[in-house]
């Protein structure tokens, strides 16, 4: 699915998108806003690259981060839920009209939190609850980050099809 197709789908359903990124470092939001009319759907993105920022900016449980590290499916879930609720509240939007998405993972070159390079978790939170995907990509940092962006776009589309 292309970014343009995803944005059309979201707009057609009257939904907005809130993005929390770690390993993709803003690339997901950048890919989406490269499409004309993205402002009708994309609310914004928080790049929480440092572990502590995941707690302070997105509401991820600090004990979870301490015990499991930042590359964890539950961390991805809490990032997606956190960005969804925070942006909804700050922009006075009904939460049921907002989809939250998050990316966290290991782009390399070294493993992190005991997770091998290429391990990525993508979560999508919305009115249908939260769904998290675990990916295992290969390649260099750039390839893993690009694959993560493509996967996130595809997974948001899958979530919407539910």
TrEMBL record:
Pfam families, A to Z: CinA
Residue span(s) of domain CinA C-terminal: 3-159
InterPro entries documented for this protein: CinA-like_C (IPR036653), CinA_C (IPR008136)
Name the UniProt record assigns to this protein: Unannotated protein
Source species: freshwater metagenome
């Amino acid at each position: 699915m292309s970014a343009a197709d995803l944005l059309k789908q979201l707009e057609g359903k009257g939904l907005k998108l809130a993005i929390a990124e770690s390993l993709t470092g803003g690339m997901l939001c950048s890919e989406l806003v490269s499409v004309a009319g993205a402002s009708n759907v994309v609310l914004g993105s928080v790049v929480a690259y440092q572990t502590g920022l995941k707690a302070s900016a997105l509401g991820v449980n600090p004990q979870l981060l301490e015990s499991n590290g930042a590359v964890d499916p539950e961390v991805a879930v809490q990032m997606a839920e956190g960005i969804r609720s925070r942006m909804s509240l700050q922009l006075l939007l009904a939460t049921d009209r907002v989809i939250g998405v998050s990316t966290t993972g290991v782009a390399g070159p070294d493993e992190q939190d005991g997770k091998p390079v290429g391990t990525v978790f993508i979560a999508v939170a919305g009115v249908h609850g939260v769904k998290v995907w675990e990916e295992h990509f290969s390649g260099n940092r750039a390839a893993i980050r690009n694959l993560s962006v493509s996967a996130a776009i595809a997974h948001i589309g899958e979530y919407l099809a539910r």
